[in-house]
């Protein structure tokens, strides 16, 4: 009797926690050789400083043992965390372009939404070359162990979004699915009410809507620079981030089903 092929298990992608709004699983996407990304191994999130005791129990139940924090110095100082079961690795990337945009507004410069989109594209282009070493280190961490890992910045949308895109591409996930995952932030992320109220006092709403959401032109600007620099995303992964064929095989063994 021939057995029917196993159907990949589908689990909730977004995980509801009291202290985050954008915590989600990268599992379930179709990857290389028809294999799917393993559930409950790779998570992306906004920052973890506000987790409740129930949240911490939920993370432990998921087996999450490692956290990669992409936030800058001031972000970590104002919203730091140290959870005993969670080994934290800081790969700090300063949000310099966003800081510059807010400074311009506060100095009286009337930014347009289009100018702000351009500044966000500058942010993403800075990930590609200027901060490539941080993302290369992320891939080394992923190869060192398959203990469940969460990576995050403050809102879990830009630095985290680029990291998620790179990981999924390295696992053979299609560009279309990568974009789908990236845009989920607009459905999930909720600005902290106190921060939103404070920002609204000095920054026009159309500018905040650009800064606090994601758009495909942001991510596409990073793809375009990586491809211009290396010739293709595969070559960028291999030559700039050190994710060559052997590394991708190791990643597949850890994070793809089958």
Description:
GO terms for molecular function: phosphoprotein phosphatase activity. This protein is of the alpha/beta class. The protein has one domain: Protein-Tyrosine Phosphatase, Chain A, CATH 3.90.190.10. Helix content is 50%, strand content 7%. It has 13 helices and 5 strands. The chain has helices spanning 53-62, 73-78, 96-106, 113-128, 132-144, 159-170, 175-183, 185-188, 193-200, 205-211, 216-230, 233-239, 245-255; strands at residues 24-25, 42-45, 66-69, 87-90, 149-152. The chain has a 5-stranded mixed β-sheet with strand order 1-2-5-3-4, with helices on one face. Helix 4 runs parallel beside helix 10 (205-211) and helix 6 (159-170) runs antiparallel to helix 7 (175-183). The longest helix has 16 residues, at 113-128. Residues 1-8 have low confidence and may be disordered.
List key phrases describing it.
disordered N terminus, Protein-Tyrosine Phosphatase, Chain A, 7% strand, globular, five-stranded mixed sheet, alpha/beta, 258 residues
Entry summary:
The chain is an alpha/beta fold and 258 residues long.
The total number of structural domains is: 1
Oligomer: single chain
Quote the distance from N terminus to C terminus. 22 Å
**Uncertain ranges:** 1-8
Strand elements, count: 5
Strand content: 5-15%
Share in helix: 40-55%
DSSP summary: helix tally: 13
Shape designation: globular
Tell me about the largest β-sheet.
5 strands, mixed
> What is the name of the CATH class?
Alpha Beta
CATH topology: Protein-Tyrosine Phosphatase, Chain A
CATH H-level superfamily: Protein tyrosine phosphatase superfamily
